[in-house]
Design brief:
By secondary structure, this protein is an all-alpha fold. It is built from 13 helices and no strands. It starts with a helix and ends in a 6-residue tail after the last helix. About 20% of the residues have low confidence.
């Protein structure tokens, strides 16, 4: 069973990588439209904590940081399945076929889509996207730096079991941005993962039995008291 699940995850990774080239092109086009070109230097510091070597400047963490980390982990877990998210109306659920944006703007849509991603062993994509959204809301510099570090360790590090699939260009952008962490450190990566979900997972979600069953359940009249 474990071997079977592992092979399915490998196949899912391969399928996701097939759409990376188009996703990367979309990111470049979006960045060109926004004029959002990173300007940070690339040789100011070592990234010991992201490369898994030991360095005294980044390996010592205070008790407060540990508390912040555990709190952040609980928040990034977010909604775990469709049942625990707000229940959509029939009209809401039908709107999800119109665009991926409709799904992502709906709490219920995100919950149901995330549950579907779990069946495809790619739930980390939604978890990463949600973590980036939470990061953008933060204004405290110390908290931002800790959240950036945690997101890197959870979703960017090649040693993480929840590593998301990013191309080399985006990884280079992240490494430059890590020199001066901000709430927008992962913007390019978030956009690429969004595009990946939109082009790869979203069409299968809309055509899945899970979505069909959801519509049927919403169409059924409530039982009489």
């Amino acid at each position: 069973m474990v071997t079977h699940m592992g092979s399915e995850r490998v196949e899912m990774r391969k399928r996701q990588m097939q759409v990376h080239q188009e996703a990367a092109a979309s990111v470049l086009q979006a960045r060109n439209r926004m004029g959002n070109t990173p300007t940070n230097a690339s040789n100011a510091c070592c990234f010991c904590w992201c490369c898994c070597c030991s360095c005294s400047c980044l390996t010592v963490r205070s008790e407060d940081e540990t508390i912040q980390r555990s709190t952040f982990e609980r928040r990034t877990e977010g909604t775990t399945n469709c049942e625990e998210s707000p229940k959509p109306t029939l009209d809401d659920a039908r709107c999800w076929t119109m665009s991926f944006e409709k799904v992502m703007k709906s709490a219920a849509g995100r919950g149901c889509f995330r549950q579907f991603l779990r069946t495809e062993f790619s739930e980390e994509n939604m978890m990463f996207w949600l973590a980036c959204e939470e990061l953008k809301k933060e204004t405290n510099r110390t908290v931002v730096e800790e959240k950036v570090r945690q997101i890197y360790e959870d979703f960017i590090s090649i040693l993480s079991p929840k590593e998301v699939s990013l191309d080399s260009r985006v990884r280079e952008v992240i490494n430059r941005n890590m020199l001066e962490p901000t709430s927008h450190t992962f913007d390019d990566a978030q956009l690429q993962i969004y595009t990946l979900m939109q082009r790869d997972s979203y069409p299968r979600f809309i055509n899945s039995s899970a979505y069909t069953d959801l519509l049927k359940s919403l169409e059924e009249p409530p039982p009489e008291p």
